[in-house]
Amino acid sequence: xxxxxxxxxxxxxxxxxxxxxxxxxxxxxxxxxxxxxxxxxxxxxxxxxxxxxxxxxxxxxxxxxxxxxxxxxxxxxxxxxxxxxxxxxxxxxxxxxxxxxxxxxxxxxxxxxxxxxxxxxxxxxxxxxxxxxxxxxxxxxxxxxxxxxxxxxxxxxxxxxxxxxxxxxxxxxxxxxxxxxxxxxxxxxxxxxxxxxxxxxxxxxxxxxxxxxxxxxxxxxxxxxxxxxxxxxxxxxxxxxxxxxxxxxxxxxxxxxxxxxxxxxxxxxxxxxxxxxxxxxxxxxxxxxxxxxxxxxxxxxxxxxxxxxxxxxxxxxxxxxxxxxxxxxxxxxxxxxxxxxxxxxxxxxxxxxxxxxxxxxxxxxxxxxxxxxxxxxxxxxxxxxxxxxxxxxxxxxxxxxxxxxxxxxxxxxxxxxxxxxxxxxxxxxxxxxxxxxxxxxxxxxxxxxxxxxxxxxxxxxxxxx
Length: 465
Known about the structure:
The protein is mainly alpha-helical. It has 19 helices and no strands.
């Protein structure tokens, strides 16, 4: 019955994709849902895209092992990021009437920077998408008993089908359904856990010393790691294309900004539920923590210690979370391929052909992401790797490009190269101060120095206020 319910849910998801495909007439329909989303749908689709397997499968295990420190990157970092985007980035970028962040880099710094930033985005999204495929594979292994490699390709095929046909419209409507299932499923599992433990107090009592510490122990290395945890998502995903694709899909500037704030509220509050479930599951069934540092803690607990109705609700919710994140993550690099790698170099291409090529790129990106997933099955590590690389290369050029008129093309190049090189060298040398900090600082300093030392001969500030 559980297997049948999962297949029924997947069938409903695909049916929504086919239904929404009727709305897709142009490339803008496919990539930005016709720029018509209200604030609620903007907030829900950002929430559904970011409330991925790391929140349900990655973070709970870290919380059990490390306490509050294990939640800094995802729980608190995403909250910081979305507030920063809502206050300082969403409104300004929405006014530019662009499709991708690479469009911004073209307007501000020229076509060469557009090309390189597009390639960086596409490369980093392979990690992000791979993490979702790995999570789906673990889930299919728990339910269907299939191997991880086969599960990766099966999950990829499901996501590709409805993303290919419906684009942003399919992503938005399935996100709405999936977000509802996520909340309902997690709440029911949480109530079951609390019923078995006798409430919240037994779950949170008896934890080891330092479990609830919000700040690290003294020492340069500890504080360095702590700051890096905040930076990974707090700053790292500020330049993320999947976030702004939803911002740019809003029907108005106000809907875009308020949608970002709504998603911050949803992610933080609903993100607490898997933490409670994970802590309760570890208390009731500590033997489950031995599997991949608790990465499969909650799915194993539900599969082994709950009835079929609860399993149906939970695994439906988990599939919802993963499919939402997968489809949103896959659409973002596909949009960049169409808008920034094909369209500029084929000025006479028809919109119909551009739409077809953008759709085909969804398939290609999925296949490459499968290869990344087969090479690394650490969900949380894959997601963090994606965020960090974007941060050390693109955060400084984006921020200075928006707010500093003297930012130059040379400064942008020097920033991207310096950030990536310093980060890579610091990783290799295993420095005491976290490589993320070195790389980000190098990127910001290089942006300033490069812009001062070599002003632009002619300005690339088209569309910048």
